[in-house]
Amino acid sequence: MKPQTIPAYDAARNDTDRAICAALRQGLGDGLPGAKARLWHAHPVWFLNDNPIAGYGKLKHCIRLMFWSGQTFNASGLKPTGTFKAAEARFTDPGQIDHAALAAWCAEARVVQWDYKNIVKHKGRLDRL
User: Fold this and answer.
1) Would you say 91 and 17 are in contact if contact means Cβ atoms under 8 Å apart?
2) What CATH class does 6-111 carry?
3) What is the pTM of this model?
4) Exposed site from 30, 44, 78, 105, fewest CB < 10 Å?
5) DSSP bridge partners of 52
6) What is the pLDDT of residue 120?
7) Closest residue by Cα to residue 56 from 72, 70, 67, 47
């Protein structure tokens, strides 16, 4: 059975991954005040005005933190992923999380946004908000 809440998602991980998820959830919650967090496509995602901003999920060998608009951030440390503007960081140990970098990424995520909410309506065109 799939988890129905973010705490349930985190609880389903092994000890190391659970610690990574807890640190990321805390950092995203602190760094994105007012964002609504929920499971989306079976992963924890934070939204501002219904636009996906950041989230994390379990990959085979790590936990991936993703910022939907991260390729256009000035802050360093994220690697491009996918065909749009997303960028990621991957973690295999909670000690790898740079909390200052996470806070910087969250600060940029609040102001540097691409309109993923309407990408289907715009037939795949991604506009800057």
Assistant:
1) no
2) alpha beta
3) 0.92
4) 30
5) 47
6) 74
7) 67
